Structure formats: structure tokens, C-alpha cells
From TrEMBL:
InterPro entries: His_Pase_superF_clade-1, His_PPase_superfam, PGM_Phosphatase. GO terms for molecular function: phosphatase activity. Pfam families: His_Phos_1. One of its GO terms (cellular component) is cytoplasm. This is Histidine phosphatase family protein.
């Protein structure tokens, strides 16, 4: 699940909370998850990710497992974000000073995902960030989830992945909640 709407007035990426609307949308997600037989919840430690999953975790009575590897991509200000993002998606190893490459983030997310899968059984929720999740989805779908799909992600957004016994992704679908 991608976090809900971030308060952009707060510049510190780690502590930026949800907006009032973002908090309401997070509460609205509870009804979607209440009958999904969730066994575990994992989240980025960033405030907006936690605020997105907390209402669901509280309602389900499930502790949130914080995982720093699910964090947002380290980046810096760019004059032309759209052009920069297109360059990043064309070359996952491209980066400017002070930011993580998409290849680095994808590897971090793959490692975290398989560790979570190995220690969990049953249905789980992973709450993270748009870029981080899109790179995981890109890997899991052998590249079918791409830059255009990333651009279409909303806040919040819920994706359901189905996996075989070898943890290979059979399907990844965007859910209407």
C-alpha cells in the first residue's frame, strides 16, 4: 500500500505527516482491510506511512513492524522533476549527487520484501512510498509495472500481489477500495 496524502508544507521527508484529507482517507481504508484476514503489517518508519496504516492496525489489533528498508528514496531538489524522473526510469543506475539510484532502491526493496515473505505467513500489508513500491512492482512483474504505472499511483493506493509457492508473482492488481 502506498501512503496517503502527504503534507507538503513540512519539508523534512521523514517527519512529514498526512494532510487532514490524507488522514480521513487512511481511516477509510480500514473497511477495505477488515475482512482480508491480515496476519502481519510492515511499514516504512516515515510518519506519513505510519499514519496511513495505524487506523487499520489498531482496528485489526495487529502490531506494525517497522522496516527502515521500506523508506522513501533519498533524493534532492531538481529544477525539472519530470525530466529528471524520466531519466531515472530510463537508466536505473543514473543519479545525481546526494540521491539514491533507482537500482539501489529496487535492490533494497527486493531484499526487504523477501525477508518479510520469509518471516510471514498468510496475508500481509506492506506500507511504503510510491517510488519504492513501484520499483518493487517493476521487479516482481519483470518490468511490466513501469514509469507510466508509477505516474498513475495515487495517495493512498492499494495493490494486491498473488504469489506461487516459490514466491514468484502471479498477478499484481490495483484495488478499488
Amino acid at each position: 500500500m502506498r501512503h496517503s496524502i502527504r503534507d507538503d508544507k513540512i519539508k523534512d521527508d521523514y517527519s512529514a505527516p498526512l494532510t487532514i484529507e490524507g488522514k480521513q482517507l487512511a481511516h477509510d481504508l480500514v473497511g477495505y482491510f477488515v475482512d482480508k484476514n491480515i496476519k502481519a503489517i510492515y511499514s516504512s518508519p516515515y510518519q506519513r506511512a505510519l499514519q496511513t496504516i495505524e487506523p487499520t492496525a489498531t482496528t485489526l489489533g495487529i502490531e506494525i513492524n517497522l522496516n527502515a528498508a521500506l523508506r522513501e528514496r533519498q533524493t534532492n531538489d531538481q529544477i525539472d522533476w519530470q525530466n529528471h524522473l524520466e531519466k531515472l526510469w530510463q537508466n536505473f543506475y543514473f543519479k545525481t549527487a546526494g540521491e539514491e539510484s533507482l537500482a539501489t532502491v529496487q535492490q533494497r526493496m527486493k531484499t526487504a520484501f523477501y525477508q518479510i515473505i520469509d518471516e510471514s505467513s498468510g496475508e500481509i500489508i506492506i506500507t511504503s512510498h510510491g517510488t519504492a513500491l513501484s520499483l518493487l512492482f517493476h521487479y516482481l512483474t519483470s518490468g511490466y509495472f513501469n514509469f507510466i504505472d508509477w505516474q498513475k499511483m495515487e495517495m493512498p493506493d492499494v495493490y494486491i500481489g498473488l504469489f506461487d509457492e516459490n514466491n514468484q508473482c502471479i498477478s499484481l492488481t490495483k484495488e478499488a477500495y
